[in-house]
Structure formats: structure tokens, C-alpha cells
Amino acid sequence: MGHANDRTAELWQSFMPFRKDIQNSLGEDLFSMQIFNGSDTEFEKWAAIEVSDFNGIPDSMQPYTLQGGLYAVFDHIGPASAFEKTFQFIFNEWLPDSEY
Fold this sequence. Notes:
Blueprint: H1 8-15, E1 25-35, E2 44-51, H2 83-97
């Protein structure tokens, strides 16, 4: 997806009904991952929860192993409907002021 065709709400709406079906979860924290592969406008997006292993995840879901590296992590506290404010901060303030 991309900034112009953001389908984040659709992604989370499809994830949340099956969240309780995921076995071996390590806590209640949810993760929204965006993977940029050379483009600053198009990205791969994941709705995720950390698990101890991939046994017991629903067939409709795919596992993802996060490799070691340098990542920017932003905590969003509040309803998903307010995430746009966090998103705007990341791309309009944090990113331009960072070395990345």
C-alpha cells in the first residue's frame, strides 16, 4: 500500500477478529509494521502480535521474522482512529529532523 492508498483500517479490521485465535502470543501489544523497500511512498504493511513460535497461528495469517537491525519504533497510545496524528508527527516532524 502507500500513503495515497492507505488501507490500514481494512488491515486491522481483518486482523482483529482472529487475534484471539493466535496461540503462543507474548503479551497483548499489537504492532503496525511498515516495510519500505527503496520507495518512500509505497510500502508493505503488517498487523502483528509477537509470538514465541509460529505453531498455532491461523491459516489465513502469515508469519514474519523481524531481522536484527536499526528500526524506528513509535508508541501510539489511544484509539486507532487517532493514529493519523501519530503518523503525521512521524513523517512531518520526526523523519525530516532525523538523519534518516
